[in-house]
Amino acid sequence: MAMSDPLGDMLTRLRNGQQAGKKVVECPFSKLRENVCKVLKDEGFIRGYKIEELEGNKKNLQIQLKYAEGRGVIRQIDRVSKPGCRVYSNVKTMPRFYNGLGVLVVSTPQGVMTDHKARAANVGGEVLCQVF
Length: 132
Known about the structure:
Elements: H1 6-19, E1 24-28, H2 31-42, E2 46-54, E3 58-65, E4 67-68, E5 71-72, E6 77-79, E7 88-89, E8 103-108, E9 111-114, H3 115-121, E10 125-131
Antiparallel strand pairs: 1-3, 2-3, 4-5, 6-10, 7-10, 8-9, 8-10
């Protein structure tokens, strides 16, 4: 059976892995997941990620979680745009998460980026998730 929300599954794996104190979390590979991981790495929410080749032309994404003072760096990570209810925003109406302290991950025509970079590039798009 096909997964209905692959990105939501990855975010849940990150949340659960951090609560369990894991160092590495694995999930199936997709380009969208890789781009979201790149944004999370650039913003300092995860240590890094790497792509693992499996047999049968399949790939896994290994995400290295980040901890500070015994607590996970990611305090809150939520899916905003869901398969049943997509959320789009232009530059003028793009919300701020925790008054700009949190980060919105936005899928734009120029690629997946944070809300700060989307405002600087003057592009809008689908609000994928919010991280604090």
